[in-house]
Amino acid sequence: MPELNDRVLIQETLRGNDEAFQELIDEYHLTVERFARQIGIREEDLPDVTQEVFIKVYRFLDKYSRGKFTTWLYSVTLNVAKDFFRKQKREKRKLEKTIQENPEQFYQENLDLTEDAKILHETISQMDEKYRIPIVLFYFHDSSIKDIAAIMSMRESSVKTRLKRGKSLLKKSLEEGGYIYEPRAL
Amino acid sequence: MSQERFDNGMEDLKQFYNSARPATSSKEIFQSIQQQKGRSSIQRYWPMLAATLGIFVIGGILLGSIISGGGTEMGQSPGSDELPLTTGSDNEHGDGSGVDTGDDQGETTGDHEDATTVEDADSNAESNDNDTNQPLVVDRPETLTKTITLEGMEEQTTYDLYVSEEFGISSYLLEGVDVQIDSSDQRIEKYIHTELFHFSMTEIGTGSDAITEWEAKINETYQSEGFSKASLENDILEGLPVEEHTLWTAESNGYTDQFRHAIFIQGNDTMYFLEAEFTIEMLEGRFPYAVETFIKELEFHQ
């Protein structure tokens, strides 16, 4: 009953029990970190982003009232990551470089992947985020279409379409040994 | 290509991601939150501390003057020269910056940095005969409910009354919005929603010259950030009752993905610049309505 446990921990945190919040961090910091990495946050920025996510969660916990905690947590992570990209873009105008450099660096450190997994990893890291985020949530975080729609503030039908297109991009990339075809319109 | 090959590849990749070496430690995250908490507690409670010290100082001066036989009659009770901004019963915007003269120390909730405690507003107002010390806003309801249509479905949205004494404004903010104030250079109020959407309002000066000057600034800045001017026609925020309104858009990977609104508003003699930015996903949700409501409900007070 992870959801029930989350609610208990949230209630305890709101009553001032910091150990309960520590438990929430223990439970979810790796999930946040993985998701942040998969959507394009650089390795060296992961601690800052993960920390920022939990600071926001702690700060807004009294205002969180509806839905699954994990859905909200993914949503906060997504927004912190996007905010991070925007800030970087404003300050250094290096958004594209940031997104593309990171997975390469991570990939080079981890060479024990199968050939297909390598192609998929590279294709996902270069995909437009419209496809990348639903693909990451669906395949690597076991999120339902309903949850993804809530996390991304979109219609379920749009999520289904993006998943379908993302999946066909990945399959095409596998077929062609890593060649990436990006459609230019939604 | 077989579905099986795709599924196996994705499963391998999932295992690979899940076995990656952690880059963060839960202990460090927790410690940083504790440090942050300590800092914000000081920021949140210092006005109350300062007010309490002020009362002691004033009390000391009064006592000194009585002892020294000054004999001047002092009609005001301690603390009556600082009044809460609103009259109401369940405002959540308190941060403890109001002066509390009662036994109940006005438990502070929420993070709004600009509002004051409400609990003692009525009793304080009753004891105060000076018009200049009346609450800034007395006739606006604490909440506002609106019905909006999202994806063909009607949704009830609640907005909370927000009063900024420094800006001399009141309006309504979507539930879950927090306010951050930056007074370092120009006064800027940033309205941040739980889901991290935000918009901001900056006091930019007086007269139309202020707008001209700022327009030149934003033209330069936005263009350097990759934004270009777009048509406001058919935009959800088209036709707002403001001085100037331009829409700027930016592309990401070939798609128009960011929509930034630059809005100039005049209140009394002061000009304000409001900036709101949406991603394409946000345009399908409640946030554009939140900005629309804030602007349409905006009232300026002397």
TrEMBL record, chain A:
Keyword Transcription regulation assigned: yes
Stored SUPFAM superfamilies: Sigma2 domain of RNA polymerase sigma factors, Sigma3 and sigma4 domains of RNA polymerase sigma factors
Alphabetical UniProt keywords: Sigma factor, Transcription, Transcription regulation
Family annotation (Gene3D superfamilies): 1.10.1740.10, Winged helix-like DNA-binding domain superfamily/Winged helix DNA-binding domain
Protein name stated in the entry: RNA polymerase sigma factor
Alphabetized CDD domains for the sequence: Sigma70_r4
Family: Belongs to the sigma-70 factor family. ECF subfamily.
The RNA polymerase sigma factor 70 region 4 type domain, residue ranges: 119-169
Domain RNA polymerase sigma-70 region span(s) in chain numbering: 24-90
TrEMBL record, chain B:
Transmembrane segments: 45-67
Record field: compositional bias (Low complexity): 124-133
Region annotated Disordered, chain positions: 73-140
Name this polypeptide is given: DUF1795 domain-containing protein
Species of origin: Evansella alkalicola
Superkingdom of origin organism: Bacteria
Assigned keywords, A-Z: Membrane, Transmembrane, Transmembrane helix
